[in-house]
Specification:
Blueprint (H helix, E strand, L loop, with lengths): L3 E20 L5 E22 L4 E5 L8 H13 L3 E8 L10 H17 L5 H11 L3 H6 L2 E5 L4 E4 L7 E5 L7 H9 L4 H17 L9 H8 L1 H12 L4 E4 L6 E5 L2 H10 L5 E4 L4 H12 L2 H4 L16
Parallel strand pairs: 3-4
Antiparallel strand pairs: 1-2, 2-4, 2-5, 5-6, 7-9, 7-10, 8-9
Helix pairs in contact: 1-2, 1-3, 2-3, 5-7, 7-8
The structure holds cytidine-5'-monophosphate.
């Protein structure tokens, strides 16, 4: 059988609010968040060929220790009880350690694309369970769009699309460690702040308006890296209607009333790397995937939306 290949996107996410409630007995933290996919993306050219032993080869990017792409591919093959050679050319555009979920999104892209390439159907609940073992953010990237995240981020509920935005994402060369950010924040968590946070978060989700101080990590991460607070202040000073750090940092984003306003704000920041972005709704997410997989024709006439996870119509 010949190799099969496909090139798929792996979108980044931002958090439109992130509340850390308490440390759980399993040492993870219970959180409440609103995830949102954005147009910044990695790209994965994946191929699969049955073989006697499983081999996963990743090119196109400097070696990443414990690459989630490798682990995701092996998780799919092992779940299906099959061996094969998986080759991935990974084009990284999403900076790592930036709170944008780049590695998690790459892993989710493999979980969606590899069964498709292999002509196998793996239900969403199974993909989510495999994803949650790889990382707390991975299940979200199986869905995309705007979603409410509970638990350690793997318990997901769809939310209405967040309104379109002219986004500016600033990715300073600061690697913010997620476990360290949790550790620093954990010390200050109290049962008093817990109720306040839940009340505030409910209000944010019902109103669809994220709070100005809606990411709990900002306090501890901004204290460690004061330049990040400076970036948020600069974006707000340049007219952003909203600005926040994403995840446990280090990227900071702002929403502007026009793309021109976002560009001017980028110019104000000097040398910090900055990217204009748009929000990616769940419908867009699926449409882009369908195009990438060459099945957009097959879903064109569907009124409810495409089958998900995407199925290979030729198998
Ligand atoms: O799940 P993931 O591998 O992305 O998490 C990385 C680390 O972040 C965990 O090992 C844990 O220290 C911390 N974490 C946490 N609570 C969460 C998510 C992550 O404490 N909800």
């Amino acid at each position: 059988m010949s190799a099969r290949h496909v090139t798929v996107p792996a979108f980044a996410k931002i958090n439109l609010g992130l509340r850390i409630l308490y440390k759980r007995p399993d040492n993870y933290h219970e959180l409440r968040t609103v995830f949102q996919t954005i147009s910044l993306q990695d790209s994965l050219a994946l191929s699969f060929e049955p073989s006697v032993e499983t081999v996963v080869r990743i090119d196109g990017t400097p070696e990443i220790a414990d690459n989630l792409v490798d682990r995701a591919a092996r998780a799919v093959l092992s779940h299906l009880g099959r061996n094969g050679t998986v080759h991935c050319v990974l084009k990284k555009r999403i900076p790592s350690g930036a709170g944008l979920g780049g590695g998690s999104s790459d892993a989710a892209a493999v979980l969606l694309a590899l069964p498709f390439l292999m002509g196998e159907a793996v239900p969403m609940t199974t993909l989510s369970a495999l994803g949650a073992k790889l990382g707390s953010d991975v299940p979200f990237f199986l869905y995309g769009g705007t979603a409410l995240g509970l638990g350690r981020g793997e318990e997901l509920y769809p939310l209405p699309d967040f309104p379109a935005q002219n986004g500016l994402l600033v990715t300073p060369p600061v690697h913010s460690s997620t476990p360290e950010a949790y550790k620093a924040l954990s010390a200050g968590l109290t049962s008093f702040s817990l109720q306040n946070k839940l009340d505030g978060f409910q209000q944010e989700v019902w109103s669809g308006v994220p709070a100005a101080d809606g990411n709990d990590f900002e306090s501890v991460v901004f204290d460690r890296h004061p330049e990040l607070r400076g970036i948020k202040d600069s974006l707000l000073g340049s007219g952003a209607s909203f600005s926040a750090m994403s995840g446990s940092g280090s990227s900071v984003f702002g929403f502007f009333s026009s793309a021109g306003g976002a560009k001017l704000a980028a110019a104000e920041l000097g040398d910090y790397p900055a990217h204009l972005f748009e929000l990616v709704s769940r419908a867009d997410y699926r449409r882009v995937w369908a195009e990438a997989l060459g099945i957009s024709g097959a879903i064109q006439n569907q009124t409810i939306g495409m089958e998900w996870p995407p199925q290979n119509p030729h198998e």
